Amino acid sequence: MRNLFRMLSLATLLLAAGVWVLTGANRGWTKNSIPLKSADPVTGIEGVVYERKFVPGMDFLAASGTVAAIFAGASFLFQTRKTKSK
Q: With contact defined as beta carbons under 8 Å apart, do 82 and 57 qualify?
């Protein structure tokens, strides 16, 4: 059980870091939409249009690190099995 929690902790941390890097490694706060500049086809005036897109930030990494630390701490609640030697 102890090793299960430690592996779960490592997997949580690596998965969260991988998602963060693959989605752009945003060093700000997590965003649900991103601004895109677009020009009006008739007038040519530039405007901002928001596209819905999940971009995890540093708070995402902090939260997943906290969950990983809880899993790692929970691994210390279980004792290791001692084998009897003759």
A: no
80 alpha carbon, distance to own chain's centre: 31
Phi, psi dihedrals of residue 2, rounded to the nearest 5°: -60, -45
Residue 86: its pLDDT value, please? 67
Cα(60)–Cα(28) distance, integer angstroms: 10
Per-residue model confidence as pLDDT tens digits over 2-37: 899 999 999 999 999 999 999 988 999 999 999 999
For residue 7, give Cα distances in angstroms to 13, 16, 27, 81: 10, 14, 27, 18
**C-beta neighbour count of 56 within 10 angstroms:** 21
pTM score: 0.74
CA distance 6 to 18: 18
Every domain of the chain and the residues it spans = 2-77
